[in-house]
Amino acid sequence: MTELHLWLRHESRTTERRTPIVPDDARRLVGNGVRLTVEESPQRVFPAEEYEAAGCRVVPAGSWATAPRDAVVLGLKELPEKPAELTHRHIFFGHAYKGQPGAADLLGRFAAGGGALFDVEYLVDDSGRRLAAFGFWAGYLGAALAVLSHRDRLRTPLTPTTKEDLDETLKPVTGDHDIAGLVVGALGRSGRGARSAFAAAGVEPTCWDLAETRDLDRSALLEHDVMVNAVLATTPVPPFVRERDLDAPGRRLRTLCDVTCDVGSPLNVLPVYDETTSWDEPVRRLRDAPPLDLIAIDNLPSLLPLESSTDFSAALLPHLLDFGVGGPWGRCLDRFHEATRAHGLDEAEGKPRDR
Question: Which runs of consecutive H residues, i.e. helices, occur in the chain?
């Protein structure tokens, strides 16, 4: 069997503090014969020295582009715009299979270079359940920020913290009003995280899942103060909140948090905004009278980088040890080829085929 060479890249997004592999799990990979190269990264929650102590080779940030062709490049968020041709196999969240902005460009870069995308969102078991995800922490932070914003206690710009400190901030204080909270998608990973944060804030939310969204009562939805959406649709469904709902008479809803941030996708269940919010400006006013605020940050777990990275790494580790062409990784690769064909790309040249 050929030795697996993993190349942990630096994340180009300045607010991305997470890592898909923590040093303790890097040590396990190395101990099992995996060659692991780690790029220096000034913002990664774990310093490069800890990876070096685990037996990894440390190299400059961004050097993955000239890594040996057989290296598998491991990351989390979007790649930088260069190089134009992607020659390696990459493991990260590509967000390129549901018509998102930039999807065709990304897939075209892979097709042009002969590389391949193993999108972690599609690393699933035989029943379609995701094997490694940040969902719990995304839901937890989404609900936490929504509560703090609703109580006018959200400090900006946002900075990474710990769960212990965030839980302390969430505790209700004298003068806080009761919050009618709603978690949509309450039974999934993100939904469980949102419910946990609401509990830390002293809020007992209404919990909706498939049964409630299948026959959606929008009037009941709008009667809550704070809504957290934890549903990432994979097939078309009627939107949960529409533009006209924002102007509905008697709307009580004041804070809307979209954990999934599927903006730009035709499967977006909250098509009431067209741009995510940020760590610098996490809240955007959608309506003034009565007020309605939006929180839609697409890397929420990076605000708890230690906890979220440790959980994700533990889930991903056994599958990296079993990296190959079959099983979950084979399904990832099949999904990549399906998406490439759907965009009409010639995988030899990265150009649309004549139709």
Answer: 23-31, 48-53, 103-113, 135-150, 163-170, 189-200, 210-214, 218-221, 305-321, 327-342
- Give 30's contacts (C-beta < 8 A, 6+ positions apart): 36, 54, 55, 56
**Considering only CA atoms, which of 280, 227, 271, 219 is closest in space to residue 250?**
219
Helix, strand, or coil (residue 344)? coil
Read off the pLDDT of residues 208-248 as tens digits, 9 standing for 90 and up. Answer: 999 999 999 999 999 999 999 999 888 888 999 999 999 99
pTM score:
0.93
DSSP annotation string for 288-328 = ETTEEEEE--TTGGGGSHHHHHHHHHHHHHHHHHT-SSSHH
Kindly state the DSSP code that residue 45 receives in the 8-state scheme.
S
The full length of the chain comes to 355
Whole-angstrom distance, CA of residue 349 vs CA of residue 355: 16
| Known catalytic residue at 82 | no
Which residues make beta-bridge pairs with 207? 183
- First-to-last alpha carbon distance for the chain, in angstroms, is 41
- Tally of CB atoms within 10 A around 39: 22
What the block records as the tokens of 278 is: 């940020």
- What angle, rounded to 10 degrees, do the helices at 305-321 and 23-31 form? 10
In the annotation, is 95 catalytic? yes
Q: Looking at the predicted structure, is the pLDDT value of residue 348 above 80?
A: no
Residue 105: pLDDT band with limits 50, 70, 90:
very high
Catalytic residue (choose from 10, 88, 90, 95): 95
